[in-house]
User: What shape does this take?
Amino acid sequence: MLAGLVLYSQTVACYEDEGHHLLAAQLIRAGHRPYVDFFYQHPPLYAYLVAGWMRVFGDGWRSPHLMSALLTASSALIAGEYVYSRLEKWRLAGAVIAMVLASFQFYVIAFGTIGQAYGLCLFAVAAAFRLAVAAADEHGAARCFWCGLAAGAAAASWLLTAPVVLILLLWLVGQGTTAQRWKKGTLFAAGTVVPFLPLLWLAWQAPRAAFFDVVEFHLFYRSANLHYHPTFRQDVGTAASLLAEPAVAVPLLLGAAALLFASRGEWAEGRKRETYLGAWLIAGLSALAVLAHPTFPQYFLPIFPFLGILGALGVCGLGQRVWTPGTTAWPAVVLMALCAAELLLPLYRVRYGYPIRWQAYEEVAREINRVTPAERSLYADTLLCYVAARRLPPPGLESDVAPLLELSPELAGSLHVVPHSELDAWLPTGRFDTICLDETDERIRTLDLSRVYAKQEHLNGYCLFWGRSTRGKLD
Assistant: This one.
């Protein structure tokens, strides 16, 4: 599993939106600060962690992909270890089933191996759950701090994991004496605050920009760069289509069986409470993902460690009723075969049909660096080109989403954003030494860039312009 995730992360894994996070990490390494110096529409913890990881293991896209693959694999291992520790029979089979159900899913592999916070959040929410159940006994209160730290790390990297913080807090303080509840709640809250310290520090320096980037943007501006007008009905349809996939529907049904066994009093009280906790986490994370307007299938990724746990408990509970010693454990074998088959087909399609590849961006980046000296300016319409070329964008163009927002000049200036209209006025003046645009971009024709630049080249779907022409209207 680990080898497969690492291999996928270094060869196929690529998604255009990861440019926001990887470029932010490169900017942080160069001494820039989110919100204070550039627009960044996410909490900053993941970008700072990636910046530190890059400092040790190298910049570019490969080292963050490796980090994500290791964390995603670790989340599945945590799910397997938990199931192994809770079963008296079928322990090894249950652990393997939990790992398969938690990781053998198309979206987990496709998005848990890229330079976005998905891998970190999968690991953090799984670790928070494991620490919470370990902190439930009367001698485990000290673990509440680390539980809060893990849950807070997920929320401070991706706000859609925030339900984990609330659900685990309520679950922990709902057990034990009054004194124990206060102690657990205080330690959990203290741990939760620690991952948010970078955000609080940056918000103190630029409160207006931080509030807009992290809160206001997601409430009012998220769909500004989309070519359609999403509706809540479409969001529900996205969730329904995900539920229809076998790799999701099967664990859900098995998890329902686990809840049935727990409700009938067939399991110990502690295991019963933990099973309910897993169900509440799935429900809370799914509800917020649906409300994230617009939503996408990858927004449901944090539920998969808990789907794996409940699904494994369910299949083992069912298997122990139909399986007798001396016969083949065929239910588990069939389940894993179905998961593998459901996974391989979409991965095959991605491998041979998905147009975006980091290798293609690296080829474009090599040509950019060949024709553009290090001290010269570059404008690219995708952030992945900056990351691949290991270059920083011009000030105000650190985001490919922010320029599309309809903002007042005063607000755009305070957010360090160059509006799209102003950018379009710059391009035909030769302001940038090199321009890299998608070859289907209408601005190539409407702004007549071939008149401004003497040289151009088409490469991997992009058009490069460089060498200002004396015919062009120069700044």
Q: What stands out?
A: The chain has a mean pLDDT of 88. DSSP finds 23 helices and four strands in the chain.
